[in-house]
Every structure is written in C-alpha cells, then in structure tokens.
Amino acid sequence: MSASKMALSNLEKILELIPLSPTSFATRYLPAAPVGSKGTFGGTLVSQSLLASLYTVPLNFFPTSLHSYFIKGGDPRAKITYHVQNLRNGRNFIHKQVSAYQHDKLIFTSMILFAVKRSKEHDSLQHWESIPGLQGKQPDSHQYEEASSLFQREVSSPQKLSQYAAVSDRFQDTASMSKYVDAFQYGVMEYQFPKDMFYSARHTDELDYFVKVRPHVTTVEHAGDESSLHTHHPHRIPKTITPENDARYNYVAFAYLSDSYLLLTIPYFHKLPLYCHNFSVSLDHTIYFHQLPHVNNWIYLKISNPRSHWDKHLVQGEYFDSQTGRIMASVSQEGYVVYGAEQDIRAKF
Ligand SMILES: CCCCCCCCCC(=O)SCCNC(=O)CCNC(=O)[C@H](O)C(C)(C)COP(=O)(O)OP(=O)(O)OC[C@H]1O[C@@H](n2cnc3c(N)ncnc32)[C@H](O)[C@@H]1OP(=O)(O)O
C-alpha cells in the first residue's frame, strides 16, 4: 500500500495536537476536507475539541455528552487552535467549553460534560436500549456490502456514473472517483452499507448500517507508559493521549466517525440518490455517550430523519455495540442542505 493510502487511516496523526499552554492546543497537520467537499470535515473539529478537553481533565473522568456548533466553514489550508475553558470542576462532573479558531476567527465551539468513573456500589436503576438479535453478529452479506465495492458498482460504474453526473457536478470529473473509492477502502472508517444505500426507491423512515474504525484503539484503561498513573494516580492529568495508551481515545474516534455518512444519508429518506445535494453543511452536532464505544468492533447504527423543512434537516442516530447489542451512543445533527426541486432531480436521475 502506498504511503498516501496508509496516511488515510492514520487517525492519531490526523487529529494530533501540539500543546501551546495547559489549556490551548494547535493542530500539527492541516485539517482536510472530505472528498467532494470544500470545508474541513466536521468530525475533525468535534473529535479534536474532545481530545483537547481530555488533556485538561483527570484520567478518571469520561465524556458523557458533547454539544457543538459549526460556526464558520473550516479552511483546509490553515491550522486550527483550540482553547479549553474550565467552566466548573465538580466532584462528580466537570464542564468544559472548547473554542476553535482559524485566522483569529471563531469557527467552532463545543461544550463537553465529563463524569467521574463511578464505583459499582450505587446504581439504583438500570436500563439499556438493546437489540438482542445483534449480539456477536457480523453484518449479513445478503443485506450489507463493503462500501468501496458497493460504491464502484452502484455509483462509479460507467452505467451508473452518467446518472449521478446528471444530478451533481461533482460526478462529472470521473478522474476524482478513485478518491471516493480510496476513502472507503483505506480511510479511518470501514463501512458495511445496505445494498440500496446509494439509491433506495423504498419508502422508509429508518436507515441502518455497520461502521468500525480501522486503526487500533486500546480498550485497556491502564494501557501504555502511563499505566501506573491510571491505577495509582487517577486524579492526574495525562501528558499524552494516543490510541495506544488511553482507552478514552475510543470517544475521540467515535466523535470523528459520528459526523460521516449521517447528514449525507438524507436523500435515502426521500427516495432520492445520495450526493444529489447542491450544498451541504452540518450546523450542529450532539453526542450522548452511554458507554465506552469500542470503535474497533462493528458498530450498528440506525438513522432517522424526524424533520426536513426550509433546507434544514434533522438527523438522529442510535449506535449499538454489536458484541453486546447495547446502545453505546446517541447522536443528533442539524444540517443546512440545499437540494434542487424534487421533480427535477427525479427527471434527471
Ligand atoms: C459528495 C460528498 C460530500 C461529502 C460531504 C461530507 C459532509 C460532512 C459534513 C461536514 O463535515 S460539514 C462541515 C461542518 N460544518 C461547517 O463547516 C458549517 C460551518 N458554518 C457555516 O459555514 C455557516 O455558519 C453557514 C453557511 C451554515 C451559515 O452562514 P451564513 O448565515 O453566513 O450563510 P450564507 O448564506 O451567507 O453563506 C455562507 C457561505 O456558504 C455558502 N453557501 C450558502 N448557501 C449556499 C448554497 N445554497 N450553495 C452554495 N454555497 C452556499 C455561501 O456561498 C457562503 O460562502 P462564502 O463565505 O465563501 O461566500
């Protein structure tokens, strides 16, 4: 595999932060835009803000929720600076606010709530939304297919590409099709999509698929060099947070994946082909974490679209651990997505 393809899945490098002070951080590398898009990938902002805030909380605090707004499109040619503001340090909860700047302008903000790791002694009520049939299951090959082969057959094959090119300029440049395929084949996320993912003529109010993160992320809480810190000094603030040394990196990786193939799926709910938008940006992003997300296992997600109106589209996702069948996170996102008239898209496709 070429170095450039290997770099596509190097999440640690993509998100790496350099400390400028105990509460401010700069990105080491430029914040790339996703294929087919001009601005920085929203998942980079969400996950880097979470990573920056983790550098300011003790090892025994875990993210419980994150609420964020994309204020200005990120410039992929400029590095980002993150400032973490401490709003309150409680015994059980810590509140942080993170502000991201480019060219001295605020581009993104998130509020993150951390909760202390609890002892098991007090747990009065328990409920987990679960999918019992999911436990230990792999994606069924009759229903789901690896995304790059599906994309090559259903979107970028010569027969299909002319239809997509009719509804979107981004498919007129056939040379760039290999970038989409590379992103699916070598990117941070590996997908198993339903076979009608890219175009479904079926009336439905739910879409489901499987996703996992390719690079290894430890689930061992006291992994890496700082192992003794976790067991003996849980109140310490870590100096380095990597996929190999801190299980909380699973939250960071989850935040990254949670902004991908979420808003883009809106046409699925309207019996239209994916990618048929004229303009698409996410406005906000909210994550409730229910447990440590094991991002190297298949994550099963169900997406719904409760409302689309006046170019504002709300999408909600429920993410399940396929090993246990239990809910791991809930995500909501509102996007500003502009489509042409529905009958025009249908006439062209
Ligand atoms: C094919 C595969 C595509 C893959 C897509 C992957 C999607 C991944 C999801 C993401 O990561 S999105 C990235 C995270 N979200 C953002 O970066 C949004 C940041 N927020 C904003 O950009 C502004 O707050 C927002 C545009 C939502 C509102 O700003 P304004 O109230 O000033 O809106 P305005 O209508 O004036 O437009 C601002 C800019 O958007 C552009 N714009 C707005 N509506 C447009 C439209 N209909 N068509 C084309 N461009 C449009 C507009 O040209 C203008 O560009 P310039 O600043 O360069 O002049």
From TrEMBL:
Origin: domain of life: Eukaryota
Residue ranges constituting the Acyl-CoA thioesterase 2 C-terminal domain according to the UniProt record: 201-336
Positions of the Acyl-CoA thioesterase-like N-terminal HotDog domain: 36-114
Pfam families for this protein: 4HBT_3, Acyl_CoA_thio
The name this protein goes by in its record: Tes1p
Keywords carried by this UniProt record: Hydrolase
UniProt family annotation: Belongs to the C/M/P thioester hydrolase family.
NCBIfam families linked: tesB
One MF annotation (Gene Ontology) recorded for this entry: fatty acyl-CoA hydrolase activity
UniProt xrefs under Gene3D superfamilies: Acyl-CoA thioesterase, double hotdog domain
Any one GO BP annotation for this protein: acyl-CoA metabolic process
A single cellular component GO annotation: peroxisomal matrix
